[in-house]
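Supplementary Text 2. Reproducibility record for the structural model of the 239-residue chain.

All settings were left at their defaults, and a single model was retained for analysis rather than an ensemble. We include the record here because the model underlies the residue-level annotations in Supplementary Table 4.
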Amino acid sequence: MNFKDIPIGIDLGTTNSCIGAFRNGTVEIIPNQICGRTTPSVVSFCGEKILIGDQTQGKIQFLDEPEKIIYSIKRIIGKKSTEDNFNKLIKDLPYKNNIIINENNRPLINIDFNGKEENYFPEEISAMILKRLKEIAEEYLGQPIKKAVITIPAYFTEAQREATKMAGEAVGFEILKIINEPTAAAFAMGLGEKEDLERVDDLDQSFFLLEENKNKYCDNLKENEEKKNISFRFRWRNT
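Retained model, structure tokens:
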């Protein structure tokens, strides 16, 4: 299998996002252009250009036009204004007064940019962030990236999961899996260390192993008094 056939992994975070790729037997965290291992999940419409992710660092003034700096969009992706906690989710956002509701109770971000008014769904903002992450990965790896796995909170609804998938597909990703963050954490903690694992129908069934592997990992640290990397291999069963 060529590396180009292997997807990248994306932690699409509320505050920051992270990209990883499996190379040379280990997961490599891909740095952005300013060598950051995480990239801000921020889109700025300040000035004459749209700045995204690492492009915003050190270049935007949060006090000038805070309503044009869009962050924490993950809070409302796939949500509707009729949901009980919607107002609570947006109350601390500086752009809350720019959020309008369409006829389907879906929120849009209203932006006045360069004299032109635009409305963006939350998944469109997320797509901008994913596009930037895709550019970072492609530049670092030196080749096009077409496949991705994206992590999401376990509490995400089906609508939020679908909106996240749509954001990824909008920038040209083939989304192989939308995976719960606790499941990803279980894998990272050494699930199946030194063993091949067969694919289960629902990867989230592996969540119950998180604490067991976490305790095992921490005990090893205390016993050996040194850090170590735990890796695992995943054997996919054809179904």
